[in-house]
Design goal:
The structure is a homodimer of 334-residue chains. The first copy, chain A, has 334 residues and is an alpha+beta fold. Helices cover 35% and strands 24% of the residues of chain A. Chain A contains 11 helices and 12 strands. Chain A has a 7-stranded mixed beta sheet, with helices on both faces. In chain A, helix 4 links the parallel strand 3 and strand 4. In chain A, helix 2 runs parallel beside helix 4 and helix 3 packs parallel to helix 4. The longest helix of chain A has 18 residues. The C terminus of chain A is likely disordered. The interface between A and B is large, with 71 and 70 residues. Strand 2 of chain A pairs antiparallel with strand 1 of chain B, so a sheet runs across the interface.
Amino acid sequence: MRWLTLLCEMAMKGEFDLIETYFAPLASAEPGSLSLKDDAAVLSTNQGMSTVVTTDCLVAGVHFFPDDPPETIALKLLAVNFSDLASMGAMPRHYTIAAALPRSVEEPWVAQFAKGLREGQSRFGAVLVGGDTVSTDGPLTLTLTALGEVPKSEALMRSGARSGDEVFVSGSIGDAFAGLKVLSGQFQDLRRKERETLIARYRTPTPRIALGLALRGIASAVVDISDGLVADLSHLCDASRVGAKIDSDKVPLSDSIRSLVESSQIALSDVLSGGDDYELLFSISSSKINSLEKVLKDGEVKVSHIGSLTKSTDVEFRDGNDLLDFDRTGYQHF
Amino acid sequence: MRWLTLLCEMAMKGEFDLIETYFAPLASAEPGSLSLKDDAAVLSTNQGMSTVVTTDCLVAGVHFFPDDPPETIALKLLAVNFSDLASMGAMPRHYTIAAALPRSVEEPWVAQFAKGLREGQSRFGAVLVGGDTVSTDGPLTLTLTALGEVPKSEALMRSGARSGDEVFVSGSIGDAFAGLKVLSGQFQDLRRKERETLIARYRTPTPRIALGLALRGIASAVVDISDGLVADLSHLCDASRVGAKIDSDKVPLSDSIRSLVESSQIALSDVLSGGDDYELLFSISSSKINSLEKVLKDGEVKVSHIGSLTKSTDVEFRDGNDLLDFDRTGYQHF
């Protein structure tokens, strides 16, 4: 752990103590963070719990725009990692950040970034416990490692699905993909409010943490949608050695996406294969559908039934009788 | 967790399944890694243990040379993180890696890098449990998060030192700093074997894991030397609100460093403030010196007594009666 590297570098620039000012306060709720002042954090695991660990790396110009607001970059960094925890049915607890910062990054940027982390901590319920900050001649590169917990043997995996299980997805699909297109100058005839909503879905996705917790003991397999509905459904099917038949009419679309598809401004196949939605895609055996309905009643996010799993390992999306054809099965970052 | 990103990118280049071939085997000893195929790893904590977490980021051209052998880059990445665990008295157990790879990186590089990870796992005893791989237009940027464990309430910290405690350091100081200089073309009149040893100390430092474990219950404070003996002693003193009087004659130097200092090819102050040694620097109350001698008897690494801690918060290095003067208190990466 080398927060002091940043400290020294910024000190030479005549800056004051950024760690003390911006990052240590984010660690104050966890005594085991040792106020980010020691070589590592010392954390206890709650009785009967397993620790769930994931790491995601975001690079400016690949996963976000270099001039995106620092708060939204921080929120996205937290969200993409906590989405992985959510898909395991885990509750976020702690995280570390490693930041490779271009020399052009100055204190106001750090302050706004830390503000985004604070907002994310408050929304998603986790505490900063360590990190490292280094200089780079390349693009801003941020790596977050998230630690969560799940009761032993209750983690949700990709591999538990069985043929005959029903397939569900949370929220709506394609908004983040369209948001990226809006940021690239497309869809200018959408209303401003709609454009802003799509951009927000791209910049600050919502990890479906409460849904992940609710699916413990109910879902047979879960994956979060980062690479796109088509690709991530294929991942779930590969891991569970099943196939899927999806009714593309049932895939939940926001009004904005529906109007873009209906006016042929965007292809349905692009919507279904676009990435970055961070919704949960999951399977449930028919016998547990009642349990699902019960836990969803008070849930904050809508869940849609989009198809079912098959013995054949083909993953098919049908529009009426037509089989949709996808040029690509994985999401390409811009 | 997005190993699949690499998978897809390399697949497009006509490469075969690198994850399956090179990384999944590194995860096989930990069932909770889910073979790197799920969204996160699910790990259990041993009874009575705390989890110790640290993150360090290495950037090509800052922390290592871009043309360093991939195996040594992997070993250094593991070592600098496990050194942080060692300084807490923790045993390494798991790690994740996030790699931002320039597009020039090809399969043989990945293969050699994975070979280095395998060697490190075998030497240091930890298992890969997750990661992320992304493309970058910038330099190779590697972030490792290491997870270790330590019995509850036995973690060693920087803040436990008291005035009157004796100060010790493991191994020898300045070799890594000189190794960096050798790589930059200096010290050409050293024998080839000596140059190679110094380079190895820079490229593949040895985390003092066994020593860290042995110091549990004995050392009052511990820090690993990454920023240099002077800077890291200052960190320990700051955290413990004490000062130090160090006898520079007692600081352990290898024969190579001693000859470079004696022939004025390198200043002693540079040796003492150079970084990257990853030795452990620690304090012990006089009453526990006997316990230290007992645990060190069979230890693999030499430990030297270099001074003691004081009430005054000054950190002084003395060469006989002369107070050494340092231009800088922290290590500057090249």
